[in-house]
Amino acid sequence: MGQKFETDSRRLLGRLRDTMAEDAAGQARLDKIVHLIASSMQTEVCSIYLFRDEETLELCATEGLQAEAVHKTRMRLGEGLVGRTARTRQVVNTADAPAEKGFRYMPETGEERYSSFCGVPIQRLGNVLGVLVVQSKASRQFTADEVYALEVVAMVLAEMTELGAFIGEGAALSARHQQAMMFRGTTGQEGAAEGNVYLHEPRVVVTNPVADDPEAELLRLREAVDTLRNQIDQMLDQAATVNADQVQVLEAYRLFANSKSWMRRMEDDVANGLSAEAAVEKEQSLARSRLQGSGDAYLRERLHDLDDLSNRLLRILTGQGADTGAEMPENPILVARNIGPGELLEYGKTLKGIILEEGSVGSHAAIVARAWAIPLVIHARNITTEALNGDAVIVDGDQGIIHLRPDDAVKAAFRDKIAMQARAQERYASIRHLPAQAKCGTVISLNMNAGLMADLPSLPSSGAEGVGLFRTELQFLIRNQMPKRGELSALYSRVMDAAGGLPVAFRTLDIGSDKVLPYMKPQDEPNPAMGWRAIRVGLDMPGVLSMQLQALLRGANGRPLKVMFPFITQLSEFREARANLDKVIERERKLGHTLPSALEVGAMLETPSLGFAPDAFFEEVDFISVGGNDLKQFFFAADRENERVRRRYDTLDSSFIGFLEMVAKRCTDAGKKLSFCGEDAGRPVEAVAFAAIGFPTLSMRPASIGPVKHLLRRVDLREVKAVIDEARANGELSVRQAVTSYLANQ
Fold first, then answer.
1. What is the model's pTM?
2. Please, is 321 exposed, middle or buried when counting C-beta atoms within 10 Å of its C-beta (0-12, 13-18, 19+)?
3. What's the rounded Cα separation, in Å, for the pair 387 and 176?
4. Is 117 helix (H, G, I), strand (E, B) or coil?
5. Coil, strand, or helix at residue 507?
6. Of 51, 369, 504, 677, which has the fewest CB atoms closer than 10 Å, so is most exposed?
7. pLDDT by residue (tens digit) across 699-736?
């Protein structure tokens, strides 16, 4: 990059900094800035558009267009060339703007006189705040150097917008991080909570975007990058003897940290007037805008790597370190881009809720949130860039909605909802020790799902008759290496102690899909939900399966034991898993260890294929637990992580109910125990329907047991079955409406 350009760029940024330092209102600052840029770039027009809401840009300052258009000219996201720049997060540079597709003529601005147009997004960490535009009468494209200069200026404008340098009248100039905002995400765990934001990774705010001394800034940048590289080398040395897969991740980090092109771009940014911190963040923002919309999982993962490296580098430059010193607020609600199970468990049950930008309904975070019975909302886009530590926040896990900095009306409505739920829980507590006996006399056994020792205290208070599913994978997921047999045996023994003699069904290790152990090599699979997971991993790694089975047998220590194998799809898999268990039992007998006083071995039915297994399967298995979450996604071929399709299919669809009824009949005919386990079992309407078609046991999260029992005790299951049969006979595609109408009349 030429010396003259570097000098001009630094001079422009220096003048910008001086303008920012002046004691002036936000509008006056903006007016001076557009005049400054237009004169420096030698263009007739410079304009700044900022968002007044998520979908609307507003002209907030201009040099060259009609002054009367300021704060009156608005356009939707994607509308016109300005809207296109904001929507695509890409520079729009054209010599003939009126001829461009999508050009919008705005007579109030007088812009039809200008042919050349260059729009640059004003963005920070992938969050577009507005658009910087320059225009000229001459028909020409702006040079690469000119575009680069505008990107540098846009970076400074983004930082100053973030710091509140342009506060004024109107929505577009209102203070950031102070307005009430609503985010729509996806329900990861139902429930509702009110509290205050606690950021898992508080971002570093760049307060000095313009450098006073470029040479000194270059030295700071190079020293910080050297420190970063040394840190990665040290982490590699520590990981080399412990975790081969962690080494691969760190090798990718080292590759990025030693990237000459990444370093060169940041050095160019500093040479042209940005501070070291601003240069790092500029490259981070540009990378996000390029890769954020990519459908390529590999590229998205690389974006995460670059984000992590950039954040590390920013903390080194600012001296902030990993610990920002922010105190955990009262009623903390954790806000993060994503989080692993170990990190989440370190927070303990002090959290009132969790909000993630990413995540999935079957993720580690969702499993822990269910165990803690706290609401979780995932896919809350951009909340980590908008929320600040301590901000008031409401999490509505039932609707998948977050209210950040809610107004009084929203708070009042939410508190009314919480009060109603509390009154309902009081009613449920009064029937805690009563059986879930329908009016027809049928008694349904209600069990709870668990995965942590912290879940077990809920067993007596919930009214559950046992643990229908204990997820054993959490103890594997939260460690950096395979847990030892003795550790697992002690844990399983404590679980059974805490259950106080009530039955506990232990599901063997269910990993794969979205539950990848940190110390096992991730599998490069196009569809991991249908890939190498659950019992398939156990059968291919019999040593791991045998070790866990030994731990279960020893943990029982002479007590009755229930074991079930996950994701069995055919009889041969069950037989192979059962044979592995028999070998372990025989070995334990020879070693003289105490064996369980009774042993039940079951399977989880999570694919339609198992419902059509030979009669021999139903004869050989001791019990079957229908895993509703997975079964529904495979039955309807609808990925439960995909919001576009997962809500299209109804659990009470007539065909799905017919399949479940067939499974129930086969178990009854074979004299085998049957349960339905999953989120749908905890929804009262669905629970009543399952009970009516022959499911004697339902397993759900503890908080759902009260509402389900309350409804079961008010209905006659024979009448519900008749309603279901009539709806199907009438050709209804779903029995939901019929069942709901019946229940409403009770």
1. 0.69
2. exposed
3. 10
4. strand
5. strand
6. 51
7. 998 888 999 999 999 999 999 999 999 999 999 999 99
